[in-house]
Amino acid sequence: MGKISRVTFKRLSSIPLETLLGHINDKRVSEHLPLLTSRWSIEDARQFIETKEAHWVKDGLGHWAVFVDDQYAGWGGFQKEDNEWDFGLVLTPEAFGSGLIITQKAIKFAQQNTDIPYITFLLPLSRQHLRALKKLGAEFVGEVSYQDTLFKKFRLNISAQ
After folding, report:
1. Is residue 90 situated within a structural domain?
2. Total structural domains in the chain?
């Protein structure tokens, strides 16, 4: 995608199901989604969006479709897991490398619109490039099991950002 001049967030429900379907079923993306056990159908995409949209209603915060310079770049956002807010970001291959700037914008949104003291990140063990998390100041907590799958867990204090 080159140099980023603008990142925008829109509701997931605003993107065509086919856009999400193509994104998730791209092998370069799905290889880093250990909870994904099969290729998605249109119905899977629809259910995913409905589930993520429900978090906005339930918790007041959720996931967005992410656009970089008006191009769909993936989806990401916040989800409450027990008493913690987890931030996840799944980019299209064309947007790989844009995660830091997107995450920084999402954190600013959370700081201005919530009183969340910290967020967590669960990364699949396949993720080796962790430079962006280090730049943010996230600290490695350890490996945790989520839905019987191991993830690397990081924590970032956003009240001090």
Report:
1. yes
2. 1
